[in-house]
Amino acid sequence: MQRQSAAEESFVHEECDKVACVDERRCIDFSECAIKQKSSFVTTAVSIRGGGSSEPNTVQTIVKSILSSSALPEPIKNFIAMICQLLESITGFHILPPLEKKSKAKKSKPKSKEVLVEEVRVSAKKKRTRKKDEKIVETAPVKKKKKKTASSSSSSSDSTEEAPAAEEVVPHQSKSTATNTKPTKPAKKDAASQKFLANNLKSSNPNYRIQRELKEFLKSPPPGLSVKISGKNVRLWVITLSMPDNSIYAGDKYKLRVQFPNDYPTSPPSVYFLPPTPRHEHVYTNGDICLSLLGKDWRPIMTAQSIAQAIFSILCGAQRKSLPMDNARHAGNKPGQKQDDWVYHDDNC
């Protein structure tokens, strides 16, 4: 009996060990299953919410397809994007699609032989034209030196008379060598203009507009016109008109006095000729100019340069030298007054 009970006990222990082993395996399997379920739940949550991977989630793909559709107008797309941003800030979910990274610039393809041959040919032509221009420029001062040496052999009075003639040869040579369309050199700035332009004025400064106009005038002056500041007053300009050869005033030079009022550019500047004045049907002997742009036709978008160009074109288009019809009545008036109540001679004035 004792042997049988010992055998039964050993059998029971073995069965218990097997059951424990099976239970342990089931426990392990169950824990692994729970881990898998948790991981699948996390991945699905991440795929919906976004932020776990670089790929867009389901909501982002839907929003992206809506925003990229051409059927919706831009204002509605912007409104949808704004709502998505608001929801993102509240919920923390990523709704808007991620920004696409800009693709790096592709490497340029190697040029073909034909393109390379064409580039070499063009560069060779440019070098030839440069050499020709350099030769022409080098020959120009030689002629000038010859004239100076010829003048030095003569008397001192003859040399002073021939010096301007030698200087006049240079502009004709520059015209002949103007094959390259080079921009005209800006006029030399006088000391007062340089000092005025050196100031860094703000847009609220009353002289800001005048400084900007002066800078543009000196940078690219119109043909036949030059400007400088009169003394220390930056609101007082003197514009010189050099009349061309194809006008009845060929070789003459006239000066315009330009005074900017305090309410400029709401009001036009005061503009009149300094003596000697040109004989023209719209220019009085006291210097006043019968020009509607200085009165009723003035606009704040106009500039002192545009006024000077208009006066210059009026003189260039003149066919005869004559005075205005009412010059005798107006000649005694002070020049440069406002032209609010003026009656102009014609529509071209």
Tag the structure with descriptive keywords:
349 residues, alpha+beta, 4-stranded antiparallel β-sheet, 50% helix
Sketch the major β-sheet.
Answer: 4 strands, antiparallel
Q: Give the strand order, joined by hyphens, for the main sheet.
A: 1-2-3-4
Shape: extended
Percent helix, as a range, is: 40-55%
- Rg is 44 Å
Total helical elements: 9
Show unreliable segments.
Answer: 48-53, 142-184
Termini separation comes to: 146 Å
Please state the average pLDDT score: 73
Quaternary assembly: single chain
Please give the number of β-strands.
4
- What would you call the structural class? alpha+beta
Report the portion of residues in β strands: 5-15%
Helix-strand sequence: HHHHHHHEEEEHH
SSE arrangement:
Elements: H1 2-49, H2 58-68, H3 74-91, H4 113-153, H5 156-176, H6 191-198, H7 208-219, E1 225-229, E2 236-242, E3 253-259, E4 270-274, H8 304-316, H9 327-330
Antiparallel strand pairs: 1-2, 2-3, 3-4
Explain how this protein is built.
With 349 residues, this protein is α+β, with helices and mostly antiparallel strands. 50% of the residues lie in helices and 7% in strands. It contains nine helices and four strands; from the N terminus they run αααααααββββαα. The protein has helices at 2-49, 58-68, 74-91, 113-153, 156-176, 191-198, 208-219, 304-316, 327-330, and strands spanning 225-229, 236-242, 253-259, 270-274. The protein has a four-stranded antiparallel beta sheet. It starts with a helix and ends in a 19-residue tail after the last helix. The relative contact order is 0.05. The model is unreliable at 48-53 and 142-184 (pLDDT under 50).
